[in-house]
Amino acid sequence: MRTPFGKPVGQDQVALLVEGVARGLAIEPQDILLDLCCGNGAITDPLFARCRGGVGVDFTPYLIEVAKTNFEKPPERLYRLGDVLDYVETTEDTEHFTKVMCYGAFQCLIEEKAARVLAALRERFPNVQRVFLGNLPDLSGVELFWQKYMGRETPSHSELKRHDTLIGIWRDEMEIAKLAEQSRWQVQISRMPPAYYGADVRFDAILTPI
Predict the structure, then answer these.
(1) Are 60 and 96 in contact (CB under 8 A)?
(2) Residue 8 pLDDT more than 70?
(3) Host domain of residue 120
(4) 3-state secondary structure of 34
(5) Phi/psi-derived region of residue 14, left when phi > 0, alpha when psi is between -120 and 50, beta in every other case
(6) What is the DSSP-derived secondary structure letter of residue 200?
(7) 1 pLDDT exceeds 80?
(8) CA–CA separation, 70 and 62 (whole Å)
(9) Are 104 and 134 in contact (CB under 8 A)?
(10) pLDDT, position 149
(11) pLDDT, mean of residues 163-172
């Protein structure tokens, strides 16, 4: 989900991504970061390096094993195998987290699960100041995406709203705002620089407590 059409991402793109997330989170040296759907840790680790560390969570055993092998540095930088909803709803160690990110994967959560994740973060993580939802497929740019990048007709609306496709659920800015506001988050929409792949058909959402 973090690669353009399954192709490797260049280091220039990785650098733009890390800078964009760090800026969106307003990451500070004293922060402790929770990365939901952290994948193999390649994006997580340089962000951990900018703060006091944190925890990455992902449900794919292979990716977590890669993250542990290459990036884990206990006790500051940890990687956990598990479902992100289960983690945010059951973990007891919540008070020390100050920032949360979910990059390129929030669109893979069904509506109910996405809502429960945001609710749990608001209710159970009292010191979280910002949540960064990154690389969200923009429903308002869906036709541009399929014509420009895929060279084919736009799928049906029902297909665009499926979480289990390669792209995941397409939402517009208002849909994200409504979903977040249900759990008392206010939303600021941001965009990556034009040099970033897919910047014209994706957006980021920065959530802060209401």
Answers:
(1) no
(2) no
(3) 4-209
(4) strand
(5) alpha
(6) T
(7) no
(8) 12
(9) yes
(10) 82
(11) 95
C-beta of residue 3 within 8 angstroms of C-beta of residue 9: yes
Neighbour tally for 34: CB within 10 Å: 27
CATH code where residue 13 lies: 3.40.50.150
pLDDT tens for 83-116 read 999 999 999 999 999 999 999 999 999 999 999 9
Nearest-angstrom CA–CA distance, 123 and 79: 23
For the chain, how many structural domains are there in total? 1
pTM beyond cutoff 0.90: yes
Residue range 12-35, pLDDT digits in tens = 888 899 999 999 999 999 999 999
Q: Which two tokens stand for residue 32?
A: 């402790």
> What is the rounded distance in angstroms from the CA atom of residue 158 to the CA atom of residue 206?
27
Characterize the bridge pairing of strands 33-36 and 130-137: unpaired
Q: What is the SS3 assignment for 7?
A: coil
Element of type H or E holding 203: strand 202-209
Distance CA 135, CA 9 (A): 14
Phi and psi at 101, nearest 5°, equal -135, 150
